[in-house]
Amino acid sequence: MVYYGETGKRLNIDNPSTYNEKVQWLKLYDRNPFYGTISDKYAVRKYITETIGEEYLIPLLGVWDNVDDIVFDDLPDSFVLKCTHGSGSNIICDNKNDLDYEEAKKKLKKWIKKNWYWFGREWPYKSIKPKIIAEKYMADESGVELKDYKLYCFNGEPKLIQVSFDRFVGHKLNFYDTDWNNLPILFIFPSDPNAPIKKPARLDEMLEISRKFSKGLPHIRVDFYSIENELYLGELTLYPASGYGDFTPDKWDAEIGSWIDLSSAYGQMK
Q1: Number of neighbours of residue 64 by Cβ within 10 angstroms
Q2: 34 by DSSP, 3-state: which?
Q3: Are the CB atoms for 135 and 82 separated by under 8 Å?
Q4: What angle do CA 94, 128, 53 make, to 5 degrees?
Q5: Three-state SS for 174?
Q6: Whole-angstrom distance, CA of residue 97 vs CA of residue 102
Q7: Which one-letter DSSP state was computed for residue 145?
Q8: How many angstroms separate the CA atoms of 199 and 178, rounded?
Q9: Helix, strand, or coil (residue 186)
Q10: Contact 63, 132 (CB under 8 A)
Q11: Using an 8 Å Cβ cutoff, are 172 and 121 in contact?
Q12: Span 231-254, mean pLDDT?
């Protein structure tokens, strides 16, 4: 069983209680047809525009069905390429002169053939038509990275904030409550409670936007970037770490799991 192999724990799918168990349950039984749209990194842009406005989107530079259609000469000196049908399939280029074009194309051709459904059985990925998009390269006040502010939401209410930082020099994750108190949670990567991560200037707006996107959904994570007081919505994530992430201390798996009300799932098992 994949779950046991990834977590070292037995899965209680009939009576799930922890966060990871409930994410597995949601993958099986919460079959909201809209999830295909919000899982598609290109299609979701239209939904975000209609819901909160185009100004919250990172500018789009291009979209292609085939890797060989990308004309790198037409792209600016820095950009990000993403496959639209999965996770972690990004080419981050901060200087086009340093980019190995053939290696980038090789990676993209491998990724665009992959169906991410088969790893974690995240069913919304299964029928997405793969595309490649190019977005504007962005960096925050550090000048070298883009912190990710990920708001975990439960039936329309954000309750937990994960900040991903130092991605290129030793990836770390810190957790905060919605009042920006640091929480002693380890999740997949190390944390650094002494890192000088300030409360985002527009945190209240992040929280309000998250409420809009999570209304009526048992669980979703709404991901933001904060750049020079500008706010951008990155992704809407249904199954963080595909429900295989390790929480330390273990009590947080149960605590966060208690926030997911499975009775609100679309078409839930009776």
Answers
A1: 16
A2: coil
A3: yes
A4: 60
A5: strand
A6: 13
A7: -
A8: 10
A9: strand
A10: yes
A11: no
A12: 95
The length of the chain, given as a count of residues: 270
**Integer Cα distance of 79 and 96 in angstroms:** 8
Give the pLDDT band of residue 228 (cuts 50, 70, 90): confident
The single residue listed with the structure tokens 């995240």 is: 122
Q: What is the model's pLDDT at position 1?
A: 67
Q: Domains along the chain?
A: 1-58+140-270 (3.30.470.20), 59-137 (no CATH)
Handedness of CA 34, 122, 168, 176 (dihedral sign): positive
Gap between the Cα atoms of 14 and 191, Å rounded: 33
The model's pLDDT over 61-109, given as tens digits with 9 standing for 90+, comes to 999 999 999 999 999 999 999 999 988 899 999 999 999 999 999 999 9
- pLDDT band at residue 167 under the 50/70/90 scheme: confident
Torsion angle (degrees, nearest 10) of CA 196, 197, 201, 207: -160
Tell me, what's the pLDDT at 139?
Answer: 87
CA-CA distance, 75 to 95, in Å (whole number)? 11
C-beta of residue 25 within 8 angstroms of C-beta of residue 13: yes
For residues 227 and 194, what is the distance between their CA atoms, to the nearest angstrom?
21
Containing H/E element for 164? strand 157-165
Q: What is the largest CA-CA distance in the chain?
A: 57
3-state secondary structure of 119: helix
Torsion of CA 147, 36, 48, 166, to 10 degrees: 0
